[in-house]
Amino acid sequence: MVNINITRDDVKDFYSVAAVVPKQELCCPVTYDQLEIDHIPQEVFSISYGCGSPVAIAGITEGEIMADLGSGGGVDCFIAAKKVGAFGKVIGIDMTEQMLEKARGFSNIVATNLGYNNVEFKYGFLEEIPVDDNSIDVITSNCVINLSTEKETVFKEIYRILKTGGRFVISDIVSDKDVPEDIKKDKELWGECISGSVTQEEFLRLAKEAGFYGIEIIKRDFYKEVNSVKFYSVTARGYKFRKGKRCLYIGHYAVYLGPFSSVHDDDNHEFKRGEMVEICTDTAFKLSRQPYTGRFLIIDTESGSEAICGPSCC
Fold it and tell me: pTM (2 decimals)?
């Protein structure tokens, strides 16, 4: 935990006001596809605070279950509601009662416009997400993790509630160097997603140490500079995989197809382009799924099968 005097109540107070009196300085310009938002009341966008659009690039499909952390006025939940369809589900988590009240009111309008109700908003904290283990296909979060002083716990919670093979797509603010103590203690800048930022390297390290693999930076844009510290809006994606109790080698091989001459995975296996590498069942499972689909030829000598795995392998 960061040794500063910022509390959950400070953040709640900041966003309780922002739910009633829109704070334009918190709104980053985001261009939405009109077809994705035509079912959402315009009032939602005046209290939509974020630094990206993770839902738009999360590859959400019909029937999936999505959780949005720090859901605020609900815009990302409502966009996802259309993507997952009538047989999917969206859960928004927020700790600010005023935001939840607004989002639930908007939700009734969205349900009427869509013709089905698949969105639920829950009161809760990022460090104690009120969702069952292994129950979520995709987790999104839009400029919220930086508000927590316990980011390591947040990533562990994200890992806990995701299904094996599930993914997170998170937009957040990172800094180009460690944020000075005077900025960290500024409650206003904390609420504005500045003071609680960590470096991109630290952000990715926390995700990897929580157990995620295949971590990617999908998008990165300059946000602003404060006291000689540069801040960037970053959207990252990672996948959950729970290793088996033993590494089993039963005749699986992987051939990396390119475009690089060689690559290393998160377990430090090296794959040289065009060369067969014996792999265990865990690695075979991972390489046949996102984000590696199409990059490897998976050979099962036991069954005699070979496949360049794409979505049909999953």
Answer: 0.89
